[in-house]
Structure formats: structure tokens, C-alpha cells
Design brief:
Layout (H helix, E strand, L loop, with lengths): L6 H9 L4 H31 L2 E2 L8 E2 L3 H7 L2 H33 L4 H12 L6 H11 L7 H8 L14 H25 L4 H9 L4 H12 L1 H16 L3 H7 L12 H11 L3 H30 L3
Antiparallel strand pairs: 1-2
Helix pairs in contact: 3-14, 4-8, 4-11, 4-13, 5-8, 6-12, 11-14, 13-14
Length: 311
């Protein structure tokens, strides 16, 4: 005689079958899943397939060439130059942008009045509502290579000769970094202020009892507590800087002038896809750039997790 099943066992057995609630759940998420498959997964798989083909012009149909496109990109010095330019501007933008934003956020967060805090939040967030095209035009006037530019006019007051901010290869990448810092300053500052307001006040009060001054509290409490926010900002900033296109294209054109110093990886992909008509080559370069971003992101998350294990 078989033992009678308990209610718990019967409930577990019933969960093995798809119930009415499960079907309703599948029905609700199916539009989202269909959208992801149609507009994210399918284009990525198609681009991967296209990267193994040799195409010509606007046609996406081509001849299977295996890894030839990847081999060409690996041996193309222009691709490595574009990757170097991307890293150069990206690292400086992320490092200086996050440092300046965090200092500004700490200063704003230390203000006593709510109105003054909101005033500075609004002021620093204004660049975020300006489009990339408008900000590029604005900086073209500010960084005009003669004394008619505002910055060179100020330098002229100190008898310093005009600087070709966007026209001299020695200064062009730094000028792009300054412009991108200005554009991202407000968003980064708002994120840091939100993180600063989550730091427990009792930690500061305990440090004050021990005689710590403001700088020591900032260094030993605020910065360590904000480490997840730093990692978040670094990962987002790195991904964004590796996809730099609009500003360098508006300033340096498709050649990345002056002297190719503003030729980034995405601009390299754009030139091959829409100017040279080599979509297969462009998608191969796109996947290589994707792998670079993926490896950098995983490494940063791994390093942060390893650091957590020592706490």
C-alpha cells in the first residue's frame, strides 16, 4: 500500500506543471522578450554573421571570407591609432571628470541650506540639457585658434600666444577632453550627491568624537563608502568614452583632423561602413571594439569584487 502524500508534496508536484498564473506571466513578458529578440539579439547575430563576409557598397549580401576581415583590422595601423586615440581621450575624460565631479558634489553636499544646494545642482546640470551639436559649436567659438576666441583672448592678456585648441595635434585631444568633461559634469555630480546623502551620519559623529577633522572624515569615511558609486561611474564613463563619435566627427570631420588625432574607433567603423562601403569590415571592427569594452568592464568589476573580499 502506497503512503498517502502530504499537502506539501502535492503542492510541489503541482508546481511542476505550468499553471494559469504562469501563462499570464508569460503573456505579460512576451512583448518585451519579442522586442529584445527582434531589436537586440537579431541585429547582433546578423552583424556577427556579416563580419565574416566581404561586402561592397550598400548591399549586405557578400561572399564568405572567414576571419579575413578580422585579420585585416588587426593588421591595420589606422585601427590601432584610432584605438589609442579613444583610450587617450577616454581615460583622461573618466579620471578627471569623476575627480572634479566628486569634489564638486562634496562641496555642494556640505552646504547647509537646501535652496543653495538646489541652485548649484541646477547650474551644474544645465550642460546636460544642451545637445552635443550645440555644445560643440559653443566650444568651437570658445577655443577659436586666434585671439577672437574667448580662451585665447584671455591668454593674450597675459602675453601668451594663441593656442590652436582644435587645430593643433598637440592640444586637440585635450580640448576634446575638456569639452566632454563640461558636458558630463552635471550628471556625474548629481549621481555623487545622491550617493553622498546615503552615507550614515553616525559614522561622521563617531569620527568627530575621535577628533577627526573634515578632511580626514572625507578621506577615511566618505571616499571608502562611495566606492560602489565610483565603480558604477567608472564603468559607465568607460563605456561611453569608448563609443565617442559625435564631438570628434563635428570637430575633425571623417578624417579625424588635425593629423588624425581625433580619429576614434567608432569613427573608424563609420568610415569603413558608410564611406568605403565595407560593411563586413566595419562589423568586424565593431565586434573587436565590443570585446575590448567587455574585457575592460569585467576586469573593473573583478577588481572591485576582489577589493571587497579584503574588507
Amino acid at each position: 500500500m502506497k503512503p498517502a502524500s502530504s499537502p506539501a508534496v502535492r503542492t510541489i508536484r503541482r508546481k511542476k506543471w505550468i499553471g494559469r498564473n504562469d501563462l499570464m506571466g508569460f503573456a505579460f513578458v512576451s512583448p518585451l522578450v519579442a522586442g529584445i529578440l527582434a531589436f537586440a539579439v537579431y541585429p547582433m547575430v546578423s552583424a556577427l554573421y556579416l563580419s565574416f563576409q566581404q561586402t561592397s557598397g550598400a548591399s549586405l549580401a557578400g561572399k564568405w571570407v572567414g576571419l579575413s576581415n578580422y585579420n585585416y583590422v588587426f593588421n591595420d595601423p589606422i585601427f590601432w591609432k584610432s584605438l589609442y586615440n579613444t583610450f587617450y581621450m577616454g581615460v583622461l575624460s573618466v579620471v578627471f571628470g569623476i575627480f572634479v565631479s566628486f569634489v564638486l558634489a562634496s562641496m555642494i553636499n556640505s552646504l547647509k541650506g537646501t535652496r543653495s544646494k538646489n541652485l548649484f545642482k541646477g547650474i551644474y546640470f544645465l550642460p546636460n540639457v544642451v545637445s552635443a551639436v550645440a555644445s560643440t559649436l559653443l566650444f568651437s567659438f570658445l577655443f577659436f585658434p586666434t585671439n577672437q576666441g574667448l580662451l585665447n583672448f584671455v591668454l593674450g592678456l597675459f602675453h601668451i600666444p594663441p593656442v590652436g585648441w582644435f587645430t593643433d595635434p598637440k592640444f586637440s585631444r585635450i580640448s576634446i577632453v575638456l569639452m566632454s568633461m563640461w558636458g558630463a559634469l552635471g550628471y556625474n555630480t548629481i549621481i555623487f550627491i545622491a550617493g553622498l546623502q546615503s552615507v550614515p551620519r553616525d559614522l561622521y559623529e563617531a569620527a568627530e568624537v575621535d577628533g577627526a577633522n573634515g578632511l580626514r572624515k572625507w578621506r577615511h569615511i566618505t571616499i571608502p563608502y562611495m566606492r560602489p558609486i565610483f565603480v558604477f561611474m567608472i564603468v559607465l564613463g568607460t563605456i561611453g568614452s569608448m563609443k565617442r563619435f559625435t564631438d570628434v566627427w563635428l570637430i575633425g570631420g571623417t578624417a579625424g583632423n588635425p593629423g588624425g588625432t581625433l580619429l576614434t574607433s567608432v569613427l573608424y567603423i563609420y568610415r569603413n561602413a558608410f564611406l568605403a562601403g565595407q560593411m563586413g569590415l566595419a562589423t568586424a571592427a565593431s565586434y573587436l571594439l565590443f570585446l575590448v569594452i567587455l574585457i575592460m568592464t569585467v576586469l573593473m568589476l573583478k577588481l572591485n569584487r576582489k577589493k571587497d573580499s579584503f574588507d
